[in-house]
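for the writeup, i need someone to sanity check this before i put it in the appendix. the sequnce is what the collaborator sent (i think, or maybe the updated version? ugh). structure was predicted straight from it, no edits. if anything looks off just tell me and ill rerun, i have time this weekend
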Amino acid sequence: MRYKLFGRSGLRVSELCLGTMTFGTEWGTGADYDTSKQVFDAYAKAGGNFLDTANRYTEGTSEKFVGEFIHSDRDHFVLATKYTLYDRQNDPNFSGNHRKNMMRSVEASLKRLNTEYIDLLWLHAWDFSTPIDEIMRGLDDLVSSGKVHYIGISDTPAWIVSQANTIAEFRGWSRFVGLQIEYSLIQRTPERDLMPMAKALDLAVTPWAPLAGGALTGKYLKNKDEEGRVKEGSARRNERSTKIAEAVVKVADELGVSPAQVAVRWTMQQDQTVIPIAGARKPSQIEDSLGCVDIVIPEAQMNMLNEVSAIELGFPHDFLRQDAVKHVVFGDTYGQIDF
């Protein structure tokens, strides 16, 4: 396992993050204590030090398990958790991005995690109701108090993240150093604004669902109708997704690796800091995903995967790429400039 600097910070995190949303059985699809510990041990043995959880994962059990697993060597691990999601369904102040819920949620997470500090606190999702300066001042207070070391933001429009970091920069507050988003060969729409913004602001990107809910492992390719078509059911199970999954399987066969390793590795081979989150319900799954750190997808296969999964960037990106637009912007000098 190699390590990366986490965005605009000196924090060192492993190149693959362990997602722990599956730690606990409360949601009916997760792993029990012993299995969760086996998944954790496999990741830690491979050199992984970056763990991602949240206050709501398996009704708090995920945080409890993670806290126990890392307790004997707490300072070695980079512990990330999140706030925003509700802890009490019928109380309006037990959810959201506002300061009251922020402080309450962090205190509750610290107790479940049995730790004195959180290495990385994520704002989990934008609530469209809390002023940005209220959020950034509250997060800065948490950093100043020593309860949180770094902050990141998840599932939020690019313009809001940009505004938040600009406010923090000019007021001398702590800035977001990480961006967590859904990103995979099937879900490439963040390339329109979120990914370029992260690169420009030096935010580390931690994609969730790099396997697109398992679609990129090829598991749905086995579920075809009488005419040989994959049965559609969602954005991860349609004609486009099928073609992408087939391409991933083809590349995996050519390289002699698993489709999961190809799918996760593709996110890592972008032209910016991308640290994918790998989750698992059993040890064999995390062991498979860990294999991605030992492979490199050659340029020819990367080009093929990029082509089959390409999206339209839309306005203004596609508009600004037109030769006619470049001409009116640059005149005859575009080809003479080294960008």
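The radius of gyration is 21 Å. The chain has two domains: 3-308, 312-339.
thx in advance!!
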